[in-house]
Design brief:
4 helices, 186 residues, five-stranded parallel sheet
Length: 186
């Protein structure tokens, strides 16, 4: 494995302009293109593409195209999860989504972060922090989850919210940045 891919997978600073990562991007491009173009394909064919693209795919997962990701192999999705149109999962670090999760349209799960130092940012350095979404979470339309955030099980994040840090289990969070407004029962 190349040094930059090693660094990326270890959560260290790396340069994404790397031949091995470029090959991984081409693989993802072909699989996403096939999935996104195959809206009328048989469910088994669409599931086969997702199983090849993603690092882990639970049973009865539904993802409405178009779906976009960086690599795919760092994404794991639990059973019975639903992902609506125009999802963008940038998976330079692991993205873990639990079971029975509802993800609204235009949701972004983002793991990459860029250097604050202007010279290093101009040179292309980046790193990534994992994103985790617990079981039975609902992310409303247009939610953005920033690098390193964990969302606890049974939590609801209101439409258009920006999750910049961890959210506990069983709460309703809204806003930019998302803030807990109340506990949820059940």
């Amino acid at each position: 494995m190349g040094v930059n891919k090693d660094r990326m997978l270890a959560g260290e600073w790396y340069l994404p302009d790397d031949p091995e990562l470029a090959e991984d991007t081409e693989r993802r491009f072909a699989l996403c293109a096939a999935y996104n173009a195959g809206g009328g394909a048989a469910p088994a064919d669409r599931e086969r593409i997702l199983a090849e693209l993603l690092g882990g795919l639970g049973r009865q997962v539904r993802i409405r195209p178009p779906f976009h990701c960086d690599y795919g192999y760092n994404i794991r999705i639990g059973d019975r999860t639903f992902v609506n149109f125009n999802a963008v999962f940038l998976d330079a670090a692991p993205i873990t989504i639990g079971a029975d999760v509802q993800i609204g349209p235009n949701v972004q799960l983002l793991t990459p972060t860029h250097e604050l130092d202007t010279e290093r940012r101009r040179a292309g350095w980046e790193r990534a922090d994992p994103v985790a979404v617990g079981d039975n979470v609902w992310l409303g339309g247009g939610v953005i989850v920033c690098p390193g955030a964990t969302i606890g099980e049974n939590t609801v994040v209101g439409a258009g919210s920006v999750v910049t840090g961890d959210l506990p289990a069983g709460v309703l969070a809204v806003g930019s940045p998302a803030r807990v407004v109340r506990r949820l029962s059940g």
